[in-house]
Amino acid sequence: MNISRYISNKIDGADSGSFTSSVTKIAIISIALGVAVMIVSFAILEGFRNEIQSKIFSFGSHLTISKYDTNNSLEVEPIGGPRLVKQLRGFPQVQNIQPFARKTAIIKTREEVMGVALKGIDEVNGISTMRQNLVAGKFLSFPDSAASTDILLSRKIADKLRLKVGDDALFYFIQNPPRVRKFTVSGIYQTGLDEFDEAYVIGDLRQVQELNSWPDSLVGGVEVILRDFKTLDPTSDHIYENLRYDLKLDKITDQYAQLFDWLQLLNRNVVIFLILIIFVATFNMVATIFIMILERTNMIGVLKAIGATDNQIRSMFFFRGLSLTIRGMIFGNLAGLGLCAIQYYFHPIPLDPQNYYMDRVPIFWDLKMIVILNIATFLTSLLAVLIPTYLISRIRPVTAIKFD
């Protein structure tokens, strides 16, 4: 039998009703709150990160390749699509390739007029990521015989123009000669990002090709989705080295730098916040063990007098602190995971989409991060338990027995 652990368990039951009992409860609560807050904070942070990145990637892509020129307009010079697509398929990190073209236009209804950019896409090389943003109606149809007259409007554009699914709208394209096209609203999308929702209408790529008098082999650019976003920088460098001199490559992190900088700022703030939480929980554990030692000074003196070593007495308080740490971590995990589950399934905490790009607090389940947080808390708490136990070696039996 381990004598130190046996005495530690006996102390646990004997502390009921004493001042130490209140202090140990505070220590358990502080650890539980620390673990719960860390789990919830990381779940929300990763939820924000993944939700915003998903919205950006659903409309754009990790990489965009287009003609290199000095024109800052949405309309660019055409490039050869099939040849470039074939070349990009040779890179193992490339998952999906989406040719596109853009054309500025003016939408006119009976009551409103609005300028937009028509973005033409196709699904020859893979299903469009825009499908996940559809909130009403159906996605574009791509008939084989002719270009589709279906379009997708954002919720904001549809509300401003007072259009709904099934309505027709006239698009005026300013070119020489000017052209007019009538499109039918087949669906309404919503990304929550004003950069997209206030400017773009989604249509068939062949409509833009016909308006520009391009053959099927020419497109405005190519969007590339990678298998792993973490490989963005090395993959983009590798692809760029193999592109023709007249093509440019834009990374999503450069195109929407403000959004990604905001995510980085959130990450730094949460890390600082978590360090403070761990520090407070550690300080409470140190204070708790100090109080336990002070209240048990007489007992320490008696144990030393009958032959107990400093390591045995130190182990006794170590097991006591270990018990408090485990209890606090169990309660903290139950509380943190419980709160995350409630928000994930029932969404009781809403958000303003105008400011946060989403209508509710997002939750992302990252088992690896939860395990890391628990291990970090456990090791830090054990270190905090060991610090005050070294005072035991300075306690003299005669003085301790007389201690009141």
From TrEMBL:
Protein topology in the membrane: Multi-pass membrane protein
Gene Ontology BP terms: lipoprotein localization to outer membrane
InterPro entries, sorted: ABC3_permease_C (IPR003838), Lipoprotein-release_system (IPR051447), MacB_PCD (IPR025857)
Subcellular locations according to the entry: Cell membrane
Domain of life according to the entry: Bacteria
Membrane spanning residue stretches: 26-45, 270-294, 324-347, 367-392
Cellular-component GO terms for this entry: plasma membrane protein complex
Domain ABC3 transporter permease C-terminal: 272-396
Keywords tagged on the record: Cell membrane, Lipoprotein, Membrane, Transmembrane, Transmembrane helix
Domain MacB-like periplasmic core, residue spans: 26-235
Similarity field: Belongs to the ABC-4 integral membrane protein family. LolC/E subfamily.
Protein name: Lipoprotein-releasing system permease protein
Native organism: Hymenobacter daecheongensis DSM 21074
